[in-house]
Amino acid sequence: MTGELSPIDKAKFVAAKRSVDYVEDGMRVGLGTGSTAAWMVRCLGEMVRNDGLRIKGVPTSTRTAELARDVGIEVISLDEAKWLDVTIDGADEFDGNLNLIKGGGGALLQEKIVATASDQMIVIADVGKEVESLGSFPLPVEVIPFGWQTTKSLVEELLISMDVLGRDATLRMNGERPFITDEGNYIIDLHLGRIGNPHQLSMAMNQMPGVVENGLFLDICDVVILGFGDGRVETRDINEGTVEEDRLDFVETDNLFTDMND
């Protein structure tokens, strides 16, 4: 099966496979959203089925919840869990300080709430997600539908005083209609090129009426696990200041690779 995977999918898989080493029996685990996180959920499901791993998963989107249930993970709400041992999620970008841009899949609000309610956040990514400065990936901003055009104008006005390269803002669409988040909100994508001061930008945007949350995940991530297409894995721990390298062998597992087309 793995022989059919592209190098980028192999990179996502090995990062996900290594990340589940952080999950122990009895843990409450935040389950991220996106293609890389889906590999992680599959790996955890395999451990539940084959190794008897007992965990409770708190998903960050309806599609992650569906996948988790499909692979046999017990799903509970964050209100039921109250606090999590670890959250494992992907990222659209990360920098040298392990600050992130997330929300390309539209689940940034739940992802940030779940990650913040965890003892540890682990990000899994392929090597292409590392950047010198955040901003190449469009920054998602979740806004309420009421008055969204006014909110968009206020965000664009704010960007004039921010240290960014570009100031284009676009409403995310789903075909001919606006994309709707799980909470019923819209997303405005900011095409900034480079964000010179992410903390300043995040704080200023979140003070704006109409803005629910933004996709800057700052000082939240503890560990980044980077996957490479040849099976190499690099683990960076920001708290310990360590970088570890390893290589994972691919194992042919029909169950794990079934329907992995997301």
Automatic annotation (TrEMBL):
GO terms, biological process: D-ribose metabolic process; pentose-phosphate shunt, non-oxidative branch
One Pfam short name: Rib_5-P_isom_A
Pathway where it operates: Carbohydrate degradation; pentose phosphate pathway; D-ribose 5-phosphate from D-ribulose 5-phosphate (non-oxidative stage): step 1/1
GO molecular function, one term: ribose-5-phosphate isomerase activity
Residue stretches spanning the membrane: none
Binding site for substrate: 33-36, 89-92, 102-105, 129
InterPro entries: NagB/RpiA_transferase-like, Ribose5P_isomerase_typA_subgr, Ribose5P_isomerase_type_A
One cellular component term from this protein's GO annotations in UniProt: cytosol
Signal sequence, renumbered to the chain: none
Tree of life domain: Bacteria
Enzyme Commission code: 5.3.1.6
This protein's UniProt keywords: Isomerase
Active site: 111
UniProt catalytic activity: aldehydo-D-ribose 5-phosphate = D-ribulose 5-phosphate
Its biological purpose: Catalyzes the reversible conversion of ribose-5-phosphate to ribulose 5-phosphate.
Subunit structure: Homodimer.
Protein family according to the UniProt entry: Belongs to the ribose 5-phosphate isomerase family.
Name used for this protein in its record: Ribose-5-phosphate isomerase A
Biological source species: Roseovarius marisflavi
